[in-house]
Amino acid sequence: MTTFESDIKKANYPAEIMFNFLADFNHFGEVIPKDKISNWQSFGDSCRFTIDPVGEVGLRIVEKESPKVIKYTAEGKTPFNFFLWIQLVQKAEDDTRVKLTIKADMNPMIKMMASKPIKKFLEVLSDAIANHKY
Which superkingdom is the protein from (predicted)? Predict the structure, then answer.
């Protein structure tokens, strides 16, 4: 398994408000960077989209621990199996720290091609989550 982690970002909202928003893919699509993905589809507990150069990616929520962690896994025809965690740590009423982690099962060739876009995607997505108006 290969692990990718975003930097820790600060959001100016309570963790519970952020958790409730992010735990529903119907809302989650609002924080997905539109210039990085295409073909967004949401089904509540799952979604599907295309990210270049990785291809079509499906996500399904597999675990929720309110208001701390949301864990997603790959679903459908993804190029490799992975898990994505969104971790929320509330420091004060309007101060929640956000960190994203991806653990992926990739062969060396896919790892070489996908590592940079995955790291970039994590940073862009964590920024979007931290800066979103909830």
Answer: Bacteria
